[in-house]
Design a protein that fits this description.
Blueprint: E1 21-22, E2 29-35, E3 44-49
Antiparallel strand pairs: 1-2, 2-3
Bound molecules: zinc ion (ZN).
Length: 54
């Protein structure tokens, strides 16, 4: 999975764990956002940025 901020590759070990964590590349706080029951009928997980202080 790619970091939405810096595009670093991040290994997700547990897709059920939505505890925020820090991206090792850009130090932004990321969180797994799981959307159940999508159009495709499968759980869709994306990485979102928790903090974005410019
Ligand atoms: Zn990053």
């Amino acid at each position: 999975m790619r970091c939405p901020a810096c595009d670093d590759y991040i290994l997700i070990e547990d897709f059920q764990d939505d505890t925020p964590f820090e991206c090792p590349g850009c130090k932004k706080i990321l969180k797994l956002d799981t959307d159940e029951g999508t159009y495709f009928g499968a759980t869709h997980t994306t990485l979102i940025i928790m903090e974005d202080e410019e």
